[in-house]
Design a protein that fits this description.
Number of strands: 20
Shape: globular
Strand content: 15-25%
Strand order of the largest sheet: 6-7-8-3-9-10
Helix content: 25-40%
CATH topology of the largest domain: Rossmann fold
Radius of gyration: 24 Å
């Protein structure tokens, strides 16, 4: 049986033209709907099953023109299944057992594909979570965007390119001309996600279904995109159905929330009501685990870590005036910071700020043009491969994307045990034992040892990646967005695990993240990077409460937070930013 994380959408499904030409009648529907008080989307008593396994059971909600609703819950809660039922993108083994899905007064769940295709793209837009599966890797972005522009019947062919470039600018893409001519592999993950959002809004549909639409974006770009959605709602009456595990975003931006667990609705209602006075135990648990909504969620981690500090900490990482250029581009410019043993230092900044290059220099994957990096008492530069091998045993990385960091042909047990085997740690029996312990430490059952990544959810894959990094018990762990793909409850468990180990073993963490609410609670010190330079650095409490640089203030102002939480979190005022 396929898991929800395996469901993918082809470019042809997203943008294929309908088999008949009656497009203008479909497009004019949006104007009439915006002026109507009737629900645009109505889901009633919906039950969906994969074979004998029920994934969504008796789900019901309504969404009116110009409103937004967020489906929230953990992996496996049924969020994606409900959304894909609406979009008619369920895999072959899935079946709608009962219930109705009405769009603009028409029952669509049992329409033929021929009847439904004129709605897809024109009136029902979709922003998928993973751009790697949704964009064709061998076609230029512009060619794929032209298919979306072709859905605008009142737009002459000669004006399509101009409209595409305008839309790319709207969603915060720098240099739209370059993006238009690029292939997907030439753009960052965040840029690809913005391309998908642009393709979805280009035909101005009546409803946009957005599956984790900002999960890979920096907070400032996230704000740009969400502000754009707000404008489309206000100006065109477009409705928005969010699927998200970012509950802070849902609390701030959605009008209504639907909380799902194991396919069953636990709670629904106005966003402010669900988050200020949740009625169900499950909703209360979710709310309690959101860092942006609970500024002291991880205070006990700091208390435990401080009580376990060694007397002589010293510096575990020392980066001294490091610079790195690629061709004519200066990616890192005179970057310096230190991290004490047993402490956590965060690197924050937008895509292109130099965070990733700095990490690659630290890991020895790139060599600096100038400057020096010292780990422990060992300078990174000038080592032979064998010396680097010994150093890397004590320096491990947890990647951001669990979909690409795990070998799809290997089973979980082999993936976790690989570092032990590579460094010759223990015999086969000891390696099996340590693999099982690492798996259980990240909250996974030993039964998963024999599975391949394709049979795991995204959250499970990321926990496997963390187990693999921890199995050697390194001195330094580089955490590259380690929880960005995880639900908040799973995130809480992983964070408590990571920082519990830090307190117990004196581990040193370099924490790369765009979740500033998490950085505020977990990091001791922080470096704010912009265009390859450190523009501000210091203790987290000082930087977050009294930022001196305009760029730092911009980052902090873009953090999602529900009303009443911002003051508690010591964030600066967000001015006129619209609340959800």
């Amino acid at each position: 049986m396929a898991t929800q994380d395996q469901l993918t959408t082809t470019p042809e499904q997203l943008t294929a033209p309908p088999p008949h030409p009656d497009r203008s009648a479909v497009q004019s529907l949006g104007v009439a709907l915006a002026a109507s008080s009737k629900p645009l989307l109505s889901v009633d008593d919906l039950t969906v099953a994969y074979g004998a396994h029920i994934v969504a059971e008796q789900v019901g909600f309504e969404l009116r023109p110009g409103e937004s609703l967020a489906l929230i819950g953990e992996s496996g809660s049924g969020k994606t299944t409900v959304a894909r039922t609406i979009l008619r993108l369920l895999p072959g083994e899935a079946r709608v057992r009962s219930g109705r899905v009405e769009f603009a007064g028409r029952e669509i769940s049992r329409m033929s594909e021929r009847e439904f295709r004129p709605l897809r793209g024109r009136q029902l837009g979709f922003v998928p979570q993973d751009p790697g599966h949704a964009l064709n890797p061998v076609r230029r972005i512009g060619a794929q965007a032209q298919e979306a522009a072709a859905l605008l019947d009142d737009l002459p062919r000669g004006q399509r390119r101009e409209r595409i470039l305008e839309t790319f600018t709207q969603v915060g893409l720098p240099d739209p001309e370059r993006v238009y001519e690029a292939y997907p592999h030439q753009l960052s993950g965040g840029m690809l996600q913005r391309v998908l959002i642009g393709l979805a809004i280009l035909p101005r549909p009546a409803l946009i279904v957005a599956d984790e639409p900002t999960s890979g974006l920096d907070v400032t770009i996230q704000k740009v995109v969400l502000d754009l959605f707000e404008e489309l709602k206000a100006e065109l009456g477009i409705s928005l159905l969010f699927i998200t595990h970012d509950l802070a975003l849902a609390a701030e931006r959605a009008d209504h929330l639907l909380v799902l667990k194991d396919g069953v609705v636990q709670e629904s209602g106005p966003a402010s009501q669900v988050f200020t006075a949740p009625r169900s135990d499950y909703a209360r648990e979710l709310q309690a685990d959101v860092p942006a909504l609970n500024p002291d969620r991880y205070r006990q981690i700091h208390v435990a870590r401080n009580s376990a500090e060694r007397n002589a900490l010293g510096d575990q990482i020392d980066v001294r005036s490091v610079s790195k250029s690629f061709d004519d581009m200066l990616a890192v410019d005179q970057v310096s910071f230190t991290v004490q043993r047993g402490k956590t230092h965060a690197l924050v900044g937008e895509s292109g700020s130099g965070k990733t290059t700095t990490v690659r220099l630290l890991l020895g994957l790139e060599r600096p043009d100038a400057g020096e990096i010292v780990i422990g008492d060992v300078a990174v530069a000038g080592h032979s491969e064998s010396q680097w091998r010994a150093l890397r045993r004590h320096l491990q990385l947890v990647y951001q994307n669990p979909f690409t960091s795990l070998d799809p042909t290997w089973r979980v047990g082999r993936i976790i045990a690989e570092p032990l085997d590579r460094f010759g740690v223990g015999d086969k029996s000891e390696q099996r034992q340590r693999t099982q312990e690492a798996l259980e430490a990240v909250g996974l059952s030993r039964e998963l040892i024999g599975r391949k990544p394709a049979h795991l959810s995204g959250g499970q894959r990321q926990r496997v990646a963390i187990a693999r990094a921890l199995v050697l018990r390194p001195d330094v762990l580089v955490l590259d967005e380690p929880t960005s793909a995880l639900d908040v409850t799973v995130q809480a468990g992983i964070i408590e695990l990571l920082f519990g180990l830090q307190a117990e073993l004196g581990l040193t963490y370099l924490f790369v993240s765009h979740d500033l609410s998490l950085v505020r609670q977990l990091a001791d010190t922080v470096s704010v990077m912009q265009q390859g330079r450190v523009v501000e650095a210091g203790r987290v409490e000082q930087i977050f409460s009294q930022p001196e640089h305009d760029y730092t203030r911009t980052l902090l102002a873009a953090i999602p937070a529900s009303p009443g939480v911002r003051e508690l979190a010591s964030y600066p005022s967000r001015g006129s930013l619209p609340a959800g």
